[in-house]
Amino acid sequence: MSTVTIVLILMTGGSARSATNSPVLLAEVDGPITPVVAEYLADAVDEAETRSAVLVVSIDTPGGLDVSMREIVQTFLNSPVPVVAYVSPEGSRAASAGTFITMAAHVATMAPATSIGAATPVDLQGGEITDKVINDAAAFAVSVAERRDRDVEFAEASVRDGTSITAREATETDVVDLMATDLDDLLAAIDGLTVEVDGVDTTLSTAGATVERFELSILHRILGRIADPNLAILLLSIGTLAIIYEAANPGLGFAGIAGAIAVILGFFALSVLPVTTAGVVLLILAVALFIGEVFVPGVGVMAAGGVIALLLSGLFLFEDTLSVSAPVLWPTALVLGFGAAYASRAVFKSRFAPPSTGLDAMLGRSVTVESNDGVHGTAFVDGTWWSVRAEDGVLEEEARIVAVDGLELVVQSTGGEHES
């Protein structure tokens, strides 16, 4: 898993702002660049502004969503406080989206044995990236590099050619400003640097600063765990299957509750992922068709339609490079389709099956009648003694229930059926 660590260094104000003996607020984001990370970093900048702080970002990421990366870059470029990017610890990388984020900081630094670059856009669905997308990404990288006076040639090459360089090469070519072995070394190295923030020169005074943590909220942690296209589809599918099972077997309760919870979590995951309107409509249609198959049993037309709608939804649901993995999508759609069809058959058969409970279930059953006068009698049925009378006025020991009259069974003799 990748780690993005944000360090907030408190400052005091002034015309040439500086920070002296300031504490450091350290926050960590675990995972690739996602909407959750973008929102978290925006909160970090807000917290830094509230505290009049410097924001230092230690990055170890393979990249992530283009839309989230652009949100972070925009946040950094318009930050009212200084932002320092730090690719760390050793062995880390600022690849793909991490390259843009690092270059967007006021100060860019790297630990030894780290790398930066390989920012060529990729299509996770296996499609070919068009020149239009490449040109747009390259122009964006160049504009960010120009804004921060960094190596423009590398910025463009990292996108067009997938160029990646080491920390030492990045330092020598002005891609980043300096190298630092650890956080303490970084704070000492940037101490005294002056950066321009909102047109005002700000001098950093960070040597020996006390480090504190800026924690992810519980909500962000949950969203970070479930914000995955495959997990979202699985939650929605499992939830739908459980609801279908509940509809086919009413009265169980647990399956319906578990299914509803899974569906809610699935939509919760979708709420933090970039989705398309068409994909969401197709997903809702698929769920409706699967459930509809249970209530309107047929030859599986609705179940088949649900499979097709779910497959199309998996293809068109997410924007950017996100997609549902084929090994997850196809089996899930087929299992849901067969599950809905099987449940509809079970419901259809149950409608025409003889009753198994209640008074109607007693009709046609054979009973042994106990009678003293041949007119009135009793019979033991399902653990209860019932009063019995004969349909033709004569009670015999072997009889069949033909009706239930209040609390009395009406029976018909079956003794003749056993005679040869």
Chain-wise SSE layout:
Layout: E1 3-10, E2 17-18, E3 24-30, H1 35-50, E4 53-60, H2 66-77, E5 83-87, E6 93-95, H3 97-104, E7 107-110, E8 115-117, H4 131-147, H5 152-160, E9 164-166, H6 167-172, E10 178-179, H7 183-190, E11 194-197, E12 200-203, E13 211-213, H8 218-226, H9 229-248, H10 254-270, H11 277-295, H12 301-316, H13 326-352, E14 366-368, E15 370-371, E16 376-381, E17 384-390, E18 398-405, E19 408-413
Parallel strand pairs: 2-12, 3-13, 4-5, 5-7, 6-8, 7-10, 17-19
Antiparallel strand pairs: 1-3, 1-4, 8-9, 11-12, 14-18, 15-16, 16-17, 18-19
Helix pairs in contact: 1-2, 2-3, 4-5, 9-10, 9-11, 9-13, 11-12, 11-13, 12-13
Distance between the termini: 83 Å
CATH architecture of the largest domain: Alpha-Beta Complex
Biggest β-sheet description: 7 strands, mixed
Shape: elongated
Q: Tell me the name of the CATH class of the largest domain.
A: Alpha Beta
Beta strand %: 15-25%
| Gyration radius from CA atoms, angstroms | 35 Å
- Provide the helix percentage: 40-55%
Number of extended strands:
19
Major sheet: arrangement of strands: 10-7-5-4-1-3-13
How many helices? The count is: 13
What do we call the CATH homologous superfamily of the largest domain? 2-enoyl-CoA Hydratase, Chain A, domain 1
Indicate the low-confidence ranges by residue numbers.
10-16
Average pLDDT confidence is: 81
Q: Examine the coordinates and then state which fold CATH places here, giving the name of the CATH topology of the largest domain.
A: 2-enoyl-CoA Hydratase, Chain A, domain 1
Q: What count of domains describes the coordinates?
A: 3
